[in-house]
Write a structure and sequence with these properties.
Layout: H1 2-47, E1 50-51, E2 60-61, H2 63-74, H3 76-91, H4 105-119, H5 124-147, H6 151-158, H7 163-179
Antiparallel strand pairs: 1-2
Helix pairs in contact: 1-2, 1-3, 2-3, 2-4, 2-7, 3-4, 4-5, 5-6, 5-7
């Protein structure tokens, strides 16, 4: 009888441990979902801060700052999921993009690759420069395709005007990365 009683106690303990593990898993999934939504929302909000330039269809926005900060805030996987949600919402017609689908869409496609690129580089400053270069390269390729321009010609419209402002964004994101302990 003591053996059966002991077995019941063990089973009760196992049930409690399993229940606690399920609650923990549910809480972590809820947190992950909230972080993904927050990333998408932060990028969408930052995309609304835009300064049009008269000589290019690409405006200056704060969305690249959000894209560079997100991997440090929530990790590469959740940042990528957030960018995918942002992109999906924009393609579905939700007004989250700074400019509707067109010559700027390549930069948004570049956002999807940034966390993977940045996560491969240990030093935050180098990771941020690589992330920015990724956005530029994918953005430039799409811009060339969409505008029917040579890469050299497109370079002057799609990258050069943004280098000074993006250098400031990298500096801000670097300070954030340092505060995150990276």
């Amino acid at each position: 009888m003591a053996h059966d009683e002991w077995g019941c106690r063990l089973n009760s303990v196992n049930v409690l441990k399993t229940h606690a593990a399920l609650e923990s898993t549910t809480a972590s999934r809820a947190q992950a979902l909230m972080e993904v939504i927050a990333v998408a929302g932060f990028v969408a909000l930052c995309a609304q801060v835009r300064i049009p330039l008269p000589f290019t269809p690409v405006p200056v926005t704060l969305s690249t700052l959000a894209v560079l900060m997100a991997p440090f805030a929530v990790g590469a996987q959740r940042a990528t999921a957030g960018f995918l949600l942002y992109t999906t919402l924009g393609l579905m017609g939700t007004p989250v993009f700074a400019v509707s689908f067109g010559p700027t869409f390549g930069y948004i496609l570049g956002y999807l690759a940034v966390p993977a690129v940045m996560s491969q580089i240990q030093h935050p400053a180098r990771a941020l420069f690589a992330g920015t270069a990724t956005i530029y390269l994918v953005g430039l390729a799409w811009f060339c395709y969409w505008m029917q321009m040579s890469p050299l010609h497109a370079f002057w419209f799609a990258i050069v005007p943004f280098v000074p402002v993006d250098a400031l964004k990298v500096a801000v994101a670097y300070q954030y990365a340092r505060r995150c302990g990276r």
